[in-house]
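WP5 quarterly update. Target: YcjX family protein. Source organism: Pseudooceanicola algae. Length: 471 aa.
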Amino acid sequence: MDLRFTSLADGVTRQIESLGDSLSETFFEPVIRIGVTGMARAGKTVFITSLVANLLNRARMPQLTAQSEGRILAAYLQPQPDDTLPRFDYESHLAALTGPTPHWPDSTRSISELRISFRVRPSGLLGGISGPRVVHVDIVDYPGEWLLDLGLMETSYTEWSRQALERAEKRAMAADFLTTCRGATGLDDWQEPLAQGLARSYTAYLAQARAEGFSDVTPGRFLLPGDLEGSPVLTFAPLPPEDRPARKGLWREMERRFEAYKARVVKPFFRDHFARIDRQVVLVDALSAIHAGPAAVADLNQGMEAVLSAFRPGQNAWLSRLMLGKRVEKILFAATKADHLHHAQHARLTAIMESLVAGAASRADFAGARTGALSIAALRTTVEEVIRHDGQPLDAVRGRLADGRQVALYPGALPEDPTRITKGHLSGDHWLDEDYSIMNFSPAVISLKPGEGPPHIRLDKAAQFLIGDKL
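Structure tokens (predicted):
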């Protein structure tokens, strides 16, 4: 009864919020909520920082139609509307990227928000009738690992354990955890240090899997615990199914904590934040997965399907009740680090991204949501040049490595047929040259002229896709 009452209350609250948003947009000032997510190392923090900097100073944004037509009269930051969320630390991140000793800012660890507002002159006849108006864009930054947890909501502990252990059995880095897991089965009596050790071992395996390019690393909060670190809600792990687990045994306790994680961690995120997003950016480090080889690309495909499931609530009864018919209007999938390739290969990277999205989306019903795919670099760290190897010219890129050296590197050539990557038709453990292994470029020292944002690749096209129609 309590659960039904809670669901009813959530539904009423969402209806009131939806009505308020509609009234605000119709009679006052439109508000667009853009979610930005992606897996580890996809560049969410850099993407948001450079996007905001280039929306405030738009000299490098010719593909943003409202800018090229001269209709954006002003753009400025405002206090965010949600007082309970941390503000995205734009100023510190921009200083890290553009200061005298530029470096990468800290990565996303939790959810944050930033509001940028535009004073825009409408196009066509409306421009002369209504005059300028204000459009607010709220950017919500959150870890992509949290989206993967959606699949847990209608999954039992038994089923989740079975799936997690099947994946672990195929991954060498899970050996220590599997040994610990086998020693913790069938226990009718246990102590808290045992549960903590099991959770630590599982978390260490997930961290190693993510470091080696794997995307499926649920539960998402295990790697980004925040203030929940050490709490029972994050102190569980998968265990092999037991026919008749003891009522006070370890298996029952792991099951209880798994259910608490869903109710107290996963559900509040989707209810309070995800259900309010209008447009979504999913950043993908496709090049690293391609370099890692077929297993990493196959895992990326599975991760994309899991992420996409969050944008088709009709496939998930729990999410359908929460969304009340609301769906994300646009979803942009962006392959990052395009500056690691010569521009001659950018079209191939985009084609691979489109193939990845098409494969995952073919089983999805977006009910009118528009999807797009791009290859981008939110901050360009390289310049292009031609080098010679064995007498042959190679289209290379030059940049500054983390140790300060300036080097020109050739990462290899992507195939013209994207399905050779996305369908695993190429043989070998690695699909890019060894040069890609050391392509850990640092931000270049840049000198920005008045009105300029940081250099980028196709960030203006991304902005046009996401908010161009609202400007």
